[in-house]
Amino acid sequence: MPTLLARNADVLVTMDGGRRELRNAGLYAEDGILKQIGPTAELPATADTVIDLGGQIVLPGFVNTHHHLNQTLTRNFPGAQNNNLFPWLKALYRAWARTDAEGSRASTLIGLAELAQSGCTTVFDHSYVFKNGNNVDCQIEAARDLGVRFHASRGSMSLGESKGGLPPDDCVEEEPAILKDSQRVIERYHDASVGAMTRIVLAPCSPFSVTATLLSVWMTMADPMIVKSTASSVVPILKWLVVPRHACVSMIATSSTKMTAAIQPTMRRIRGHSGSSVKIHARVSM
Ligand SMILES: [Zn+2]
Questions:
Q1: E strand intervals along the chain
Q2: How far, in Å, from the CA of 68 to the mean position of ligand 1?
Q3: Can you give the residue ranges of every domain in the chain?
Q4: How far is the C-alpha of 204 from the C-alpha of 189, rounded, in Å?
Q5: Which pLDDT value is given to residue 115?
Q6: What is the 206 CA–ligand 1 centroid distance (Å)?
Q7: Does residue 237 carry a pLDDT above 60?
Q8: Fold for domain 3-61+238-271?
Q9: How many Å lie between the centroid of ligand 1 and the Cα of residue 67?
Q10: What is the distance between the alpha carbons of residues 246 and 208, in angstroms, rounded to a whole number?
Q11: Mean pLDDT of 47-65
């Protein structure tokens, strides 16, 4: 069983009920699972991997609960700027539908890297336009390459304009194909075990782009397979990351107001410093 000892951190931020911040502290993990945190003197003396954290701050990794990583490359489309939701979507649907697997991988990698730089180590993504060879596989590959914990959605759109939906017909998929591919990615990637790095979420896009039939079929499909069917039910699994003492941590990319509020005091202090950005030294679950 591989063990990890990270010690001598200037400050270890626990985020526990008492909001303790431990000086000259560290953590000990076995097989990737956190076993102990506390002052360095109280931790085991050694481990398979030992990291010295002198001059650094340790805090739990943040959890991003809402993202559309397939859209990273289209954030600056002039035709989509300064619009409300529907015209914004209509300006971008076809660009997303033309995104191929390579483009999707690049878009996902950039988005995940931005999140990791902000201290985020667990990401839920809602991508829902899978045309032109684009698929969930290339996003999962990108997350694995980067090392973040990834809850990937096999989202979808099936209600085109001709049936009363918002997206153009050539941007939506046939429902049998959606269901078949959803089954495929669940069987190939979904890992329900504790500490899993990859999970699949079934995520039909919206009432104006998916039929009621698909929504109901999807709910029955998700439950027996213990696959989450909405973004809000993603289980946050914290990982610990290490921030250099003089880190400049930018915006916290999460829609979880509870999480944001919880870490604000610490973030205010960290923002007071300037220098390098967040670095993930090791992945440890709790
Ligand atoms: Zn959204």
A1: 3-13, 21-30, 33-39, 49-52, 56-60, 62-64, 120-125, 149-156, 198-204, 240-244
A2: 6
A3: 3-61+238-271, 63-233
A4: 18
A5: 92
A6: 10
A7: no
A8: Urease, subunit C; domain 1 (2.30.40)
A9: 6
A10: 47
A11: 91
